[in-house]
Amino acid sequence: MDALETWTRSEHTADVAGRPTTHPVWRKGVGPGVVVIHELPGLTAGVIRFGEELVAAGHTVLLPHLFGPVGREFSNLDVARVFPRICVSRELTKLARGVTTPVAGWLRSLARDLHAELGGPGVGALGMCFTGGFALAMMVDDATVAPVLCQPAVPFIGLPGRAADLNLSPADAEAVRRRAADGCSVLGIRYASDPSVGTRFDTLASLIGDAFIRVELDGRGHSTVTEHRSQVAVDTVLEFFGERLR
């Protein structure tokens, strides 16, 4: 069965780096809205299964498709195929420090539209791995009131200074600090031994203090809510969204 057979497909168009850009979006569920941003190599079956858990918990879930295959199980071969395209994409940051990924503007627009439709305090956003920091960038906009960062891994570690970088411009980092001071919390989840996250959680704690809810899981996994799914991680996300979106 097609993993997205019971989901409704649409498209969303918004500005990315000065150009109108369209991406497909799959939707399912009723209740407060949550935008789930997939990881490498694409909108995998594991990401969709996690989306189904959010639907079952009483959320309207949007799964935007930004790159890579759709509906397939995770494979390293797909990662190898998709990675070169990611590297040349103008929508996505990879190595630059102190900048916000350009596609954040598109994601903010998607969240604003969902919030305008559903009402309530706002929407949740969850990014993972390559897109982990994207949910933080969405917090710049008032529509996103419950950002979740699962194992944020960009900019890629390997050159000096990148392990601590939050994938935010200075202006956006200041906006995040102000929103946190006004009561918007940020949830971050990682496996404690995962090297790809670097010291970003330390940076975020320094930026927003007690507004950062830090969850470090035991073990050597990476994908906290998908391929190396932790029930603790999933339960924490569900509780976080439940408290802040209802």
UniProtKB/TrEMBL annotation:
* Pfam families in alphabetical order: DLH
InterPro entries from the UniProt entry? AB_hydrolase_fold (IPR029058), Dienelactn_hydro (IPR002925)
Coiled-coil annotated residue ranges, if any: none
Residue ranges of region Disordered? 1-23
| Keywords in alphabetical order | Hydrolase
Molecular function via GO: hydrolase activity
SUPFAM superfamilies in the cross-refs = alpha/beta-Hydrolases
Give the Dienelactone hydrolase domain ranges. Answer: 31-146
Indicate whether Hydrolase appears among the record's keywords.
Answer: yes
Q: What is this protein called?
A: Dienelactone hydrolase
Give the taxonomic lineage as stored in the record: Bacteria, Bacillati, Actinomycetota, Actinomycetes, Propionibacteriales
